Amino acid sequence: MHAFDVLGDPVRRRILELLAGGEMTSGALCEVIGEEFGISQPGVSQHLKVLRENGFATVRPEGTRRLYAVDAGPLQDIDAWLDRFRRFWTPHLDALATELARGKRARRLRDADETPRSTP
Amino acid sequence: MHAFDVLGDPVRRRILELLAGGEMTSGALCEVIGEEFGISQPGVSQHLKVLRENGFATVRPEGTRRLYAVDAGPLQDIDAWLDRFRRFWTPHLDALATELARGKRARRLRDADETPRSTP
DNA sequence: CACTTATATAAGGGTTCACTGATATAGTTG
DNA sequence: CAACTATATCAGTGAACCCTTATATAAGTG
Fold first, then answer.
1. Is A13 in Cβ contact with B8 (below 8 Å)?
2. Measured between CA atoms, how close is B111 to chain A, in angstroms?
3. What tens digit of pLDDT does each residue of A10-33 get?
4. Which side of chain B, N or C, has fewer Cβ within a 10 Å radius?
5. Is A93 within 8 Å of B100 when comparing Cβ atoms?
6. pLDDT in tens, B41-81
7. Fold category of A3-71 in CATH
8. CA-CA distance, B58 to B77, in Å (whole number)?
9. Residue A70 forms beta bridges with which residues?
């Protein structure tokens, strides 16, 4: 399943949004999602499986619970795919700022201690 | 159809990649896509319709041809949605650089992501 | 106008997906 | 071990999606 397909489902997007705030147990997710979308525990569990199997989430057992957390790998892939379109909405940011934003070379920020002259 | 669903299809992603290079006619797209994916002209046309109807592409008639172009609006929405996960792969960029990169206006644009309450 | 080229729509079929209810696994506790 | 809690899996069903072939619209050309 492609990363975009995984994110095509609103339940899975919401789960990731929740996990963005930190680890959560399957049960806690079931509660919120069940409330918001009106779907059953197996329904949520199946979505968690999709997130797991596609690298969007990791799981860590703790006693009888299972703690889920975001794995940002596939999200980063999507971010990278979007690169080729960024020029459509960030007309001409100077290269340094773009580089910074992408995070390709965070180190350079320290070296060049300047305050990047903004041209927004 | 949600933006992520639109991008879930590899043919539509490829069409957008091609359009990222500049306007193209339906015919030219049919040729490349037909070649690469082995699908028919109506197949491609239907994908173009999806892209149009969901705001990913604009069309402009020129004689008997139709010129397609990228409309980056929905892509920007996706980029904005990814914001909440960026900290996972851009450890700690200072706020200024991030703000610069995102484009200050992008922030104001939209933050709302509908999380429907379904009625069973 | 008849003909051709460029593109879109229509109708139908096969496949995939997301749900539900029932059940299985696994850890915890009496 | 038995009972309970937390979570995952199974089997089945209805809907959505993407493709195909056939056909429609529309503009240019003799």
1. no
2. 13
3. 999 999 999 999 999 999 999 999
4. C
5. yes
6. 999 999 999 999 999 999 999 999 999 999 999 999 999 99
7. Arc Repressor Mutant, subunit A (1.10.10)
8. 17
9. A57
